[in-house]
Amino acid sequence: STEPTAAAATPKDRLLGGLLSPDFDEQSCLSRYQITLYRKTSTHILSSYLLSKLRKYEALHKKCGPNTPLFQKSVEQIKLNHSTDQLECNYVVLSPFDGIGNRMLSITATFLYALLTDRVMLIHLPEDMDDLLCEPFPGTTWYLPSDFPIQGLEWFNTHSQNSYGYLVEKNLINTDPKAPPSSLPSSIYVHLMNDMREAHLHVRFFCDDDQLVISKINWVLLRTNQYIIPGLFIIPKYAEELERMFPSKETVFHHLGRYLLHPSNTVWGMIMRYHDSYLTKSKETIGIQIRNYSHWAPISAENAYEQVVRCTQQELILPSVNLNQSHTSPLTSTKATSKTVLLVSLSRDVYERLYNLYYEHPTITGELISVYQPSHEEQQKFFNKFHNYKAMAEIWLLSFSDVLVTTAVSTFGYVSYSLAGIKPWYLWTAILDRNITNHPCRRALSLDPCYHTPPHFNCKTGGKADPRNIVPYVRQCDDYTHDPAIK
Ligand code: GDP
After folding, report:
1. Rounded mean pLDDT of 140-160?
2. Assigned fold of 283-469
3. What pLDDT, on the 0 to 100 scale, is given for residue 7?
4. pLDDT tens per residue across span 152-177
5. How far is CA 407 from each of CA 18, 205, 386, 425, rounded to the nearest angstrom?
6. What residue's CA is closest to ligand 1, atom 25?
7. Whose CA is nearest to atom 23 of ligand 1?
8. Summary mean pLDDT of the chain
9. What's residue 4's pLDDT?
10. Lowest-confidence pick of 13-17, 72-76, 185-189, 243-247
11. What is the residue with the minimal CA distance to atom 18 of ligand 1?
12. Taking the CA of residue 14 as centre, how many other CA atoms within 13 Å lie in the half-sphere pointing to its CB?
């Protein structure tokens, strides 16, 4: 069959069914237009309401983005130290943190918060994210200017004195829902990192009344490495809007990630070169992501390999081999429907074993299995943009797969399958099920990523609460704790 070309794609496809704005210069971000040649079209319903929200957001961002008079006006407000309800432009500034998976999740979650609250989202760009992503909004930038008056956002923490939790705890903020903006600071910091605890009161960010207070504050500065979206779903104020934007609740990241996250031309070059060199030969590509959490759930190379083999064979993802038969009659090309395995991992050890399995033995089905691994960086490297390019490229390559097997709890895996729009098989981590070779994997329940540290807080009593009792569709992560009730 002949490959489709970018020119052949209909305008509707090129803009992902209206998800993307047409107002861009194609050369500035090739991935935005060429992605349709690599990733399957989404089969998940896209609401026209979401599309209209996105177009309105783009107009707002253009009007209020950096280098506009309205932006300048809002920056001046910071110096006055109190909020005003006269401002046309209010902002949420995110400082992304941790690995690429965590950062993609937190950027997307913050963007949804911006959509819900009519704020403009700006990103405090760490140096190691330079040239990683394209600008997502036409005619403007989403990066916070370096001369922004509040500096050092990346170091803010639970105890920062301008933080919402601290101000509430010390009674230094007027939390009366009727409080006028002038009685509130012009900016606050919200700490929603994985070390956020109910006791820190940042958790009140997820309460209706507190959202009302926060809505009057011109600047919200945020640090999170989490997918806080399920937390937004439990805030009654946003329920109706979320329902209209996402009639299918598990598709939030799938759609917003496809809208927002576009690899830069540098990263896109890597993705295309790898894909076109190794992944075009067979009809089916199986993406396997192996994350060895050497600190909290270490697993030996042999066990990780066993787990992958058992999972893929038990779920009929890959064929088993005939161990006794070292030679087999050559297959005619029509019989040999080949499969390609794209294996992504920091180390090479599982790859070597899997590659050899299919090199040394024939499969019982006669299929030919090719195994490829783009890189093996050995360990997570911090503050290294070339390392980040590879991580991003590999997440995107995985997202082009037909079938996915990802490691439980990994945000790297979450981004790949949610962008792909397919539920993966989760490889259990050793800590969740020590008997992983007998229970190697299970199909994920939701397409949407999981929020690892959700609030357990009752906004009315100030006590503990299970978020699952607040709204029925918010569930416990099915890969994060091993709940035997989840089958
Ligand atoms: P998580 O820790 O699995 O939730 O995923 P993150 O992406 O947030 O952080 C892990 C980081 O380690 C990645 O961003 C990469 O920098 C690195 N890393 C982990 N696994 C891989 C891999 O398979 N390939 C590459 N290139 N980098 C990886």
Report:
1. 93
2. Rossmann fold (3.40.50)
3. 45
4. 999 998 888 899 999 999 999 999 98
5. 32, 30, 23, 8
6. 391
7. 345
8. 91
9. 43
10. 13-17
11. 380
12. 15
Pairing of strands 91-96, 120-123: parallel
Give the Å distance between the CA of 26 and the centre of ligand 1: 29
* pLDDT class of 1 with cuts at 50, 70, 90: very low
Substitution site in 294, 380, 395, 480 for ligand 1 pocket (most atoms within 8 Å of beta carbon): 380
Tokens of 47: 């609401």
d(CA 346, CA 348): 7
Residue 457 makes CB contacts below 8 A (sequence gap 6+) with 198, 203, 204, 206, 207, 463, 464, 465
Q: Answer for the pair 410, 289: CB distance below 8 angstroms, yes or no.
A: yes
Q: What percent of the chain has pLDDT over 90?
A: 76
In the reported structure, the alpha carbon of residue 132 is separated from the centroid of ligand 1 by a whole-number distance in angstroms of 15
Q: Kindly report the protein residue whose alpha carbon is nearest to atom 12 of ligand 1.
A: 380
Residue written as tokens 């890969």? 479
Q: Is the model's pLDDT at 486 over the cut of 50? A: no
By alpha-carbon position, which residue is closest to atom 3 of ligand 1? 410
CA of 284 to the centre of ligand 1 (A): 24
Amino acid 477 reads: C
Whether 344 contacts 275, CB under 8 Å: no
Expressed in angstroms and rounded, the spacing between residue 251 Cα and the centre of ligand 1 is: 23
Residues with CB under 6 A from ligand 1: 98-102, 291, 344-346, 375, 377, 380, 387, 390-391, 394, 410-412
What SS3 class is residue 428?
A: coil
Domain with CATH 3.40.50 in the chain: 283-469
CA–CA distance, 42 with 406 (Å, rounded to integer): 20
Whose structure tokens read 């893929």?
312
Residues 6 or more apart whose CB falls under 8 angstroms from that of 329 comprise none
**pLDDT tens digits for 258-307?**
999 999 999 999 999 999 999 998 999 999 999 988 888 888 999 999 99
Q: Which residues contact 370 (CB under 8 A, 6 or more apart)?
A: 281, 282, 338, 339, 340, 341, 358
> How many other C-beta atoms lie within 10 A of the C-beta of residue 178?
8
- What's the gap in Å between 226 CA and the centre of ligand 1? 15
Residue 254 Cα to ligand 1 middle (Å): 19
Q: How far is the CA of 391 from the centre of ligand 1 (A)?
A: 6
